[in-house]
Design a protein that fits this description.
Elements (H helix, E strand, L loop, with lengths): L3 H4 L3 E3 L5 E11 L6 E9 L2 E6 L4 E3 L2 E3 L17 E2 H4 L4 E4 L4 E4 L2 E7 L2 E8 L2 H8 L3 H10 L7 E3 L3 E3 L14 H4 L3 H8 L4 H10 L2 H7 L5 H10 L2 H10 L2 H8 L4 H10 L2 H11 L6 H4 L6 E3 L4 H11 L8 E5 L6 E6 H6 L6 H4 L13 H11 L3 E5 L5 E6 H7 L15 H11 L1
Parallel strand pairs: 1-6, 14-15
Antiparallel strand pairs: 1-2, 2-3, 2-7, 3-4, 5-6, 8-9, 8-13, 10-11, 11-12, 15-16, 17-18
């Protein structure tokens, strides 16, 4: 028995040659290294019969038993048994190697000494043709293409299920493998799912992983997932996200739902998000994040280093360190990490900071922001109000999300900016 579809529908004959029914399903029991076939489910006029696999003899186009029907010792299902047709065949599963949601067209077995084990699932066209009972089409295609149809066997260890079987027997496959993928890969998988499945997956992840995954999905899916989550869960996830990302999601939700979630968030995080929600989407204020490193103009180089270590900021928010006055947080300078590293520990920040700081106001357009990034080859841009108080920063990745790639292309002969070089590198890769 190589495939499940090759077993389904086969007649089962007892020791005196009487047909007791046809195979309706195959049961496997989880085991190491692979699940073991435990029984076949035989359907006849009196209902399903669970026949232990150890009593089954496989013959051409049928299965036989060494005893008469009235002598069969039927199999007792275990709580973690898997009924392959009912719980796996035609189900959607996650292929954690190729980051795809695929449909199970067949199930592949492998023979080991004294046992048949579940090797994996088949998501190929050949598997679908077997399931439909038109395997002969494969032979025609093979003759036309002059090669067999490619197989797509996904090892059982690499399968995560998205659906559970009805009734007490469920497919118990942990989601640990999924949570170990890169957030962008998890997002690719989530975008292939239906809304209920997306919510289930996000709920199964730890809060930090969920907060890393959501921004990698499309804005529509982000809002859809947060809308469907319990308010407490939604608040926990948004608290772990950058304030600008959380504000972007909440800005796409109904006002009532937004306020409901904000009320469940920690006051400090909720305040940051509320401030950002006041700005229009396509403005500098709408692009900025309030996660940045601001240091006093009274600090020395060593005090700045100590401050950075204390804050442990995200990498994308520490391109530059912004120098502000202690009394009113007016932006008066900026230093790079390089300048900080080479300065003597007791050197005052005022002596090596750049005082001409390229900045933008909250109501500036996205185009104005992009032009500044391009003109001055920036990785981050501070946003200040009319009194020059630092309100937030815009990072280059935030600009990428809002500006089409072709808008970064420069004039012939002009030196490329860092964003342009990054885009060209991605294009080549």
């Amino acid at each position: 028995m190589q495939f499940l579809t090759q077993a389904l529908g086969r007649p089962v004959i007892d020791s005196i040659g009487e047909q007791i029914g046809k195979v309706r399903d195959v049961i496997v029991t989880p085991a190491e290294p692979l699940p073991v076939v435990s029984a076949i489910v035989v359907q006849n006029g009196h209902g399903p019969l669970l026949v232990p696999w150890r009593q089954v003899r496989e013959e051409v186009d049928r299965f036989s038993l060494p005893v008469r029907r009235d002598r069969i010792r039927f199999y007792t299902p275990q709580p973690d048994d898997i009924w392959l047709k009912r719980s796996v065949l035609d189900r959607q599963i996650v292929d954690v190697h190729d980051y795809k949601v695929v449909r199970v067209n067949d199930v592949r077995f492998v023979e080991t000494p004294g046992q048949i084990r579940l090797l994996g699932v088949d998501a190929s066209t050949a598997g679908l043709l077997r399931e439909l009972g038109v395997e002969w089409v494969s032979q025609i295609l093979r003759a036309i293409l002059r090669r067999p149809l490619p197989e797509k066997i996904i090892a059982w260890d690499d399968v995560e299920t998205l659906e559970q079987a009805a009734g007490p027997i469920k497919l118990k496959i942990p989601l640990q493998k999924l949570s170990k993928l890169h957030p962008a890969d998890i997002a690719d998988i989530i975008e292939q799912m239906n809304p209920m499945q997306r919510t289930d997956i996000i709920e199964s992840l730890d809060v930090q992983t969920a907060a890393d995954v959501l921004p990698e999905t499309s804005p529509e899916i982000q809002a859809e997932i947060i809308e469907d989550l319990d308010t407490d869960d939604a608040a926990d996830i948004l608290e772990e996200m950058d304030p600008d990302e959380a504000a972007d999601i909440l800005g796409d939700l109904p006002e009532e739902r937004t306020q409901e979630i904000l009320n469940e968030m920690e006051p400090e995080e909720a305040t940051d998000v509320r401030e950002l929600l006041e700005y229009e989407d396509e403005t500098a204020g709408g692009l900025m994040t309030t996660d940045y490193v601001a240091i006093s103009d009274q600090f020395t180089a060593q005090q700045v280093i100590d401050r950075v270590r204390e804050l442990s900021p995200d990498a994308e928010t520490i391109y530059y360190l912004y120098v502000v006055t202690e009394e009113d947080e007016r932006l008066v300078g900026v230093i790079s990490l390089r300048d900080l590293v080479v300065a003597q520990p007791d050197t005052p920040v005022k002596t090596f900071m750049a005082t001409r700081v390229i900045h933008v106001h909250p109501d500036a357009s996205v185009r104005e922001v992009a032009e500044l990034f391009q003109k001055y080859n920036l990785l981050a841009l501070p946003v200040v109000d009319v009194g020059n108080e630092l309100k937030g920063i815009i990072t280059v990745d935030d600009v990428f999300k809002h500006i089409p790639t072709h808008a970064w292309r420069g004039r012939p002969g002009r030196r490329q900016t860092a964003p342009e070089q990054m885009l060209d590198h991605e294009a080549v890769a």
